[in-house]
Structures are given as C-alpha cells and as structure tokens.
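Researcher: I've got a protein sequence and the SMILES for pyridoxal-5'-phosphate. Could you write out the 3D structure of the bound complex as structure tokens? I'd like something to compare against our soaking experiments later this week.
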Amino acid sequence: MAETSVTETAAPASRDNSASRDIRTSIHPYTNLKLHETQGPLVVNEGHGVFVRDEKGKEYLEALAGLWCVSLGFSERRLAEAAYRQMLKLPYYHIFAHKAHDIGIELAEKLLSIAPVPMSKVFFVNSGSEANDTVVKLVWYYNNALGRPLKKKILSRAKAYHGVTVASASLTGLANNHRDFDLPIANIVHVDCPHFYRFGQPGETEEAFASRLAESLEQRILTEGPDTVAAMIAEPIMGAGGVLLPPATYFEKIQAVLKKYDVMLIADEVICGFGRTGNMWGTTTYGLRPDMISCAKALSSGYLPIGAVMVSAAIYDALRRQSEKIGVFSHGFTYSGHPVTSAVALETLKIYEETHLLDHVRRVAPHMQAGLRRFENHPLVGEVRGIGLIGAIELVADKQTKAPFDPKAGVGEFLFKRAQTYGVIVRALGDSIAFCPPLIIQEEEIDLMFERFAPALDDTLSMVRERGLIR
Ligand SMILES: Cc1ncc(COP(=O)(O)O)c(C=O)c1O
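Model: Sure. Here is the predicted complex with pyridoxal-5'-phosphate in place.
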C-alpha cells in the first residue's frame, strides 16, 4: 500500500530535479500537501546577510528571518566556527544523571545572568515546542509537589502560538493546530485574545478593553475554580497569531488577577526573546513578572536547534523536593544541553553583546516602523502594528467596518506569493502579513524590503478589485 502511494505521487522521471525529488520524498510542515505535489517547493540553498538565494540564483530579502529566528543573518562565520571548534573538542555528551560539561554550564550561567527577572535554574531543550511541553509538565509536577493535585489547568489565549507537540499544540489557540489532531488535551483552557483592533468594542479605549479582558479572565478563573487553575502562558507579543501587541495596561491588569488566585505566569519568549522588541526580552518591554520563561529561536540565531526553560527559585525548590521524594526528576531529552548547540548559543549571546546589537535594533526600529506605517492609507490595509523589528499589516475587505476577507479567498497568501516574485519573503498569517527581519538589518535593507513589498500589495489590490472582493 505504501509503495503504491509512493508511485502515485512520484513526479515524472523527466523532471528529476530537486523539486520533483522533494515532492517524492518529503512531508512539509505547514503546507497544503496535495497542492505541494503540483506547485513544488522553492528550493533555497544559500544565504548571505539578510538575503537568501534559490537554486536558480534568484535572491530574496528574508523579511521573516526564516521562521522569526535568524537574528544574525545567514552568514555569521563566528557561529560556524564555534560549532566546528566544539565538534572537535566534544561533539556530543549528555547532562542526564549528574553529568555536565563546561560549555553547558557556561550557557546556563549566561542565560540566568541576562534573565529579565530573577530566575534560579535553566532546563535545556531543542525547540520552542519542547520548551512549552516542558513548562506544562513542570506546572503539573510543581503542583503535585505542593500537594495540590487539582491545581492543573493552564490558561492560554485564543490565537496564541506555543508550538506543535501534543501539549504545546494544545496551548496554541489556533483552530488548525487542533483540528483532526484530536487536540487540545484536557486541562488547557483558552481565554480572550487581546487584539484591540479586532476585539475592542466601538468607543472602547485600549485601557478599558484591557480592564474588560482582566474581568473576563477573573470570571473564567472563578468559573473553573481557582483551586484548579495553575498557570497562564502568554507571548509578550503574539507572533504566529498575527503579530498582536498587548493593549495598554493589559499585562498589569491580568497579572493582578493571576496573583489574586495564585496562578503562575509563564512568558513564552520564543519570538520576543533576545532583542526583537528592542529590549533583550519582551517581558521587559511589557512589564511581565513571570515565574517561568521559555525561549528558543534567536538563542542560537536559528543556526542549531536549542531552547531553554528558566524557572524561579520557588519552582525549583518544589522540583528538587519532589525529585528527592521520588528518587529522580524523570524528564529530559537526549540532546538537552547538547555541547555543540550550547557552544553556538553562547557565541550568539557573545555576538549580541560585543556588537551592541540591542543598540542597533533600537536605532533602526523606528525606520522599520515608519516604513510599515506608510502602508496605513493603502485601501487594503486595516491595521499596521509593530514594535522594535517586528510588525504586521492586516488586510481587510472594508477599512471602515474592518470586515475581513473570506479566508477561502486566500488574499494574504496571494500577497505573500506576489512578494516572493518581487524578491521579498514575508509570511501570511491569514490576512496579516508579518515582518520580522534579521536583527542585523540596515536601514537601506529595510527600504529595499518595503520597495519590494509595495508592488505586491498593489497587485493584490488589483486582484481583489477584479474579483469584486473589496468594497
Ligand atoms: C511564541 C512561540 N512559541 C513556541 C514556538 C514553537 O517553537 P518551535 O517551532 O521551535 O517548536 C513558536 C514557533 O514559532 C513560537 O513562535
């Protein structure tokens, strides 16, 4: 049966190029698999600075830093050299069962020293999803340690993105991450999305919207039963849900509610961490006081897979007591604290410091934000939002009423493809178009990014007019 389907999906032998070989062999993440069989992949084989090049030699400005991660661009030799040096010294070792290595120790020390709030310990993982799965397990283990077996529910928000493994996909608040995967699992509760443009009521201020959301959160905790609600997880800026910035006073107000009911806060810094918002952490930008922090992506500039969970002293204390009681803390991955990924992460953090990358981000961010806002008057654009070197443009069918396009019309997808034709890779999150370039981007490159994007937006307007999709 399997062999039959391989034959059925194989591309004709005459097209035995990399695209047909890919179609024959790979299941692509976040892809319409059937469409892929006719459309094929964009084969990207090289990168330099903020640019990547496809197999035909065409160059693209990578306006999403790959998947929000390649902070140092695509040709940072120091990271390649750090990996090479570590490969020669100790290519692999683990940190299970009382083992350690110098490079892992150094990375843990470094992370704790730059944490936005005092953190006690670091647990290494290989991705954002593993970080958030770990967070879920730690929340449960912690409450069992405290003798609170009912306090297990974790609050997350509609449109949140926390990953794709079983628990992290359950935390994710996007329908397609649950649909037909039999998710979410039990004990995950989704609460309001804080997107003011979409969910604020007519005449409501951002502050009043934030108060309403905090009241709704409190109501939900009371309905669920405060003794059953353990934690809330939140991205400082919601990334894959559409680059949604928190409304003014939101985190201040929801944290007061969480504190009242002894519900811990987990900051998912997987996108915001390491400079994206102009501070080292989104937590600092928005005044979060988390008990745990998950991070990944720019921790290694995306060069190797690594993530981390940092926990407060109170959490660590409960974990150690429980592991002493059981005899072991039975959680960990073969590649937790891998020496080569650790070496690359450490070098990444050194480069951030030595090149004063945060200062650079703060210098060029206003240029990017001003560039984005120049699209505000475009007939297709409902909202422009962003901070630091992250932002989005939301497309609407009617600027006045904010009416969205029918998702089936694929307007965002059309724009994304047109932009690619003009040599800029953005990301369509439904009809929100995200920008999150490498943090090393220069002002001239920001200009080029928007110069390439603008005709794609105009082409999209022509398309929706021709199809009668816009009012
Ligand atoms: C905020 C956030 N959390 C978690 C994840 C999951 O990370 P990964 O894809 O490395 O598993 C992502 C990925 O985009 C993310 O944006």
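Model: Residues 67-68, 127-129, 132, 161-163, 235, 239-240, 268, 270-271, 296 surround pyridoxal-5'-phosphate (CB under 6 Å). The chain has 18 helices and 15 strands.
Researcher: Great, I'll pass this along to the crystallography team.
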